[in-house]
Specification:
Chain B: It is an enzyme of class 1 (oxidoreductase). The complex is a heterodimer of chains A (279) and B (400). Chain A is an alpha+beta fold and 279 residues long. Chain A is built from ten helices and nine strands. Chain B contains 17 helices and no strands. The chains are: A alpha+beta (279), B mainly alpha (400). The site of one iron/sulfur cluster (SF4) has 13 residues of chain A, from helix 2. One iron/sulfur cluster binds next to helix 3 of chain A.
């Protein structure tokens, strides 16, 4: 994990303002193009909303979730761009036994397919259910949004942020949060007074602004504490436990065996044949 | 007669049950072949919302505590020096070695890129419980293999390696116990990361400790069951006196486990406990049938002295641990509205693995001296006048 001692304010983050999203799904297409992802067979209304494809998958790193709701007796749509949150302290990176996931200093959490052994622990660990698996292959790998690291590292914006006309802003995390708060302050009647991603899972590189309660949009409630700390509080005890158990058992057996050896030598001395004389 | 013919003739002489096991193992092998040809997606019921299924829940998370007999008994016998339990050590080691080897098989089947399993040895990530478990399993399988070599060397009369093994015996026992402590508990650490996924009936920060304690309960119970069964079905000597001693230790361990479990449930759990009736039923069954009932039974001296009742109590403990592991790694992880059940092929593979375990145990017991081991001829004391002690009286077993 490279995320310790990192100044997350300086790393890049997405600000996704869902009140400005028109549901054009340009980001979805741009992402497929840049990452050369295959198309998926269209099947309408198989997911929990009207979106297509129904779920993120090995072919779809981001998608717009459609949600209908009623407001003042009128049917309305809400949209939500789903993607990897590029957590500041990613659970996926912390549990991967071979360190295939890495939090880069630029912000994106990258995945090294060459290292991955396919244990799928990252999928179990990610609180947002982001990593997807190539279930169709005999020797599958994990797939997820790359944060367009190859672009970001060259100073470009991610493909989805470049395509989007208004809803996605990309820049320093600190500035994105400032900008978000400015927007809320400017139009308090419109926005919900909460940023999703500023604290979730210890803070992420994707910040959401909405008009609708987050749970209505299908956002999962997620702990505020960085996830790696949950396992680390047990794992950091490992060397200590190993040494304690090892040394106390060694001592114990040395003591118990010594007792026996002494008793045996005593007996041998009595019978007059000490093993020492033999050699 | 060619070698093949000798083998065929040998197999023809086997009991019907053993032949049946061979068929099951062969089916399991075929099914695992299908997994590599057609991929995980087609052959299993796993998907993106349920990435770990039966193979992790049973073949790994459950099989590891079931193989815990070796380390528990090794520590009891050698470190606390309770010598009369000695005859049970070898069967326990064989069970442990088989168990762990089959855990490795299960893991390899489940990995997407099994050919890269050596990556865990090269790219270290000490923050990952999976890294720790794979290191420990590799180390522990090696230790058990070395311990298992003793009966093999005895069988073929290799005296030099036997002496070497005898010298490193104690360090091996200590290493085995410490490594096991770590990875039995790390299996619990696995699920600490599933903060908002594992239901609060099982999720709490003491999960690693609970896994370790319940593994010890399972370990002791397995030894009781195994010795009772090999006495009954394989004509091995009756060890009931020794088993009574174990049955006296067991309720203490269960009590400690139960105390920690109740404490963590009452004091450390965050989140609702009673919102999922299905899970609540599973939890109650796990604790009532798998913990409380055997505890009450074993506190009764009549039960401990009765072969059948004692084995029944041990079976209950084992069932409780199995259910606990399934609850933690499978049922408790299912989000409301989703449901995973293993596919036909997944189940065949797992049945094959269980059959392989029993089969190999029976075969090893048939061809190697794991029961006819005479502890009184062996001196396990640490030779601190190195050669001298050895020459004096240490290698009785090697000559026996
Ligand atoms: S959202 Fe999931 S996959 Fe993305 S960085 Fe966070 S833990 Fe990793
Ligand atoms: S599946 Fe690959 S990337 Fe995910 S935790 Fe396992 S090794 Fe790491
Ligand atoms: S950052 Fe790149 S990979 Fe991620 S959703 Fe946007 S376009 Fe796709």
């Amino acid at each position: 994990m490279s995320s310790e001692n990192q100044d997350f304010n300086k790393s890049k983050a997405f600000l996704i303002d869902m009140t400005k999203c028109t549901g054009c799904r340009g980001c979805q297409v741009a992402c497929k193009q840049w990452n050369q992802l295959g198309a998926e067979k269209t099947e309408f209304f198989t997911g929990e909303g009207y979106q297509n494809p129904p779920l993120m998958s090995e072919y779809t790193f981001t998608r717009i979730k459609f949600r209908d709701y009623e407001k003042n007796g009128q049917n309305e749509f809400a949209f939500y761009k789903e993607m990897c949150m590029h957590c500041n302290e990613p659970a996926c990176a912390s549990v991967c036994p071979v360190g295939a996931f890495k939090k880069t200093k630029e912000g994106p959490v990258t995945y090294d397919a060459e290292r991955c052994i396919g244990c799928r622990f990252c999928m179990v660990a990610c609180p947002f259910g982001v990593p997807k698996y190539e279930w169709s292959k005999a020797l599958p790998l994990v797939r997820k949004c790359t944060g367009c690291y190859s672009r970001v590292k060259e100073g470009l914006k991610p493909a989805c942020a470049t395509t989007c006309v208004s809803a996605i802003t990309y820049g320093n995390r600190e500035e994105m949060i400032k900008e978000a708060n400015k927007r809320i302050a400017a139009r308090p009647e419109k926005y919900l007074k909460k940023l999703y991603g500023s604290e979730e899972a210890g803070g992420t590189s994707v910040i959401y602004l909405t008009a609708l309660p987050f749970d209505e949009l299908g956002f999962k409630p997620v702990t505020k504490r960085p996830l790696p700390s949950y396992t680390w509080q047990a794992l950091r005890l490992v060397p200590g436990i190993f040494l304690t158990v090892g040394s106390s058992l060694s001592l114990l057996s040395w003591f118990n065996h010594r007792k026996e050896r002494i008793a045996k030598e005593e007996e041998q001395r009595k019978s007059g044949a000490t093993p020492k004389e033999e050699s | 007669m060619t070698a093949a013919k000798i083998i065929v003739n040998e197999i023809k002489g086997y009991h019907r049950f053993v032949k049946f096991l061979i068929v099951l193992v062969a089916l399991g092998a075929l099914a695992s072949l299908a997994r590599f040809v057609f991929g995980l997606g087609v052959t299993t019921n796993l998907n993106d919302t349920f990435p770990w299924g039966l193979w992790i829940s049973f073949d790994v998370v459950t099989a590891v505590p079931l193989a815990a007999g070796a380390f528990t008994l090794g520590a009891i016998v050698h470190c606390f020096h309770i010598k009369k339990l000695e005859p049970l050590v070898r069967p326990a080691i064989v069970t442990g070695f088989l168990g762990y080897s089959l855990v490795c098989v299960g893991l390899l089947l489940d990995l997407g890129q099994p050919q890269r399993c050596w990556h865990t040895m090269v790219y270290w990530n000490p923050h990952s419980p999976m890294f720790e478990v794979s290191m420990c399993i590799a180390a522990y399988t090696t230790v058990l293999f070395l311990e298992f070599l003793s009966p093999v060397c005895e069988k073929f009369g290799y005296h030099v390696p036997l002496r070497l093994l005898r010298t490193i015996e104690m360090p091996l026992v200590v290493a085995a116990a410490s490594i096991s402590t770590l990875h039995q508990s790390s299996l619990g650490t696995f699920f600490l990361i599933a903060v908002d996924k594992l239901h609060s009936l099982w999720y709490n920060p003491l999960l690693p400790l609970l896994f370790w304690l319940s593994a010890m309960c399972a370990g002791i119970s397995i030894i009781i069951v195994e010795a009772t069964m090999s006495h009954k079905y394989m004509g091995q000597p009756d060890e009931s006196e020794l088993l009574e001693t174990l049955a006296k230790i067991l309720p203490w361990v269960i009590t400690v486990y139960l105390t920690v479990k109740v404490f963590s449930l009452v004091a450390l759990t965050q989140g609702p406990l009673f919102n999922r009736p299905g899970l609540l039923v599973l939890f109650v069954v796990e604790v009532a049938v798998g913990v409380l009932l055997p505890l009450v039974m074993l506190m009764n001296g009549n039960v401990r002295e009765n072969n059948r009742l004692r084995a029944t109590a041990a079976w209950l403990v084992i069932a409780g641990v199995i259910l606990n592991r399934f609850n933690v790694s499978m049922f408790g992880m299912e989000a409301p509205g989703t449901f995973y059940y293993p596919s036909f092929l997944e189940s065949v593979v797992t049945i094959g693995i269980i059959a392989a375990h029993i089969l190999f145990f029976v075969l090893i017991a048939k061809y190697f001296p794991i029961f006819e081991h005479h502890p009184e001829t062996v001196d396990y004391s640490i030779p601190d006048h190195f050669r001298k002690t050895e020459k004096g009286h240490a290698h009785g077993a090697a000559k026996a």
